[in-house]
Amino acid sequence: MCVEEAEDTLEELRSAFRKAGIVLPSLGLDPVSLAREAPCPLVELGRCSVDTARRLAAVLTGMAR
Q: Could you write out the three-class secondary structure of 3-54?
């Protein structure tokens, strides 16, 4: 259940970023957290370019207002 929920959440997050014009190439589930006996994965946001980081900051700042 935990892995399926994490995968669904990951797709929701990817879709939300896409709608905001943001692509995080490393976005995915953390493989180390999946390897546990009872996996409950972490979402890995990964690395991005400075331009993408700026756009992400602008979107998040706009949401906080």
A: HHHHHHHHHHHHHHHHHCCCCCCCCEECHHHHCCCCCCCCEECCCCCHHHHH
pLDDT tens, position by position, 21-40: 999 999 999 999 998 888 88
Please check whether residue 31 is in contact with residue 48, taking contact to mean a CB–CB distance below 8 angstroms: no
Q: Are the C-beta atoms of residues 40 and 2 closer than 8 Å to each other?
A: yes
Q: By CB neighbour count within 10 A (0-12 exposed, 13-18 middle, 19+ buried), where does 5 fall?
A: exposed
pTM here?
A: 0.80
Rounded Cα distance between 14 and 53, Å, is 15
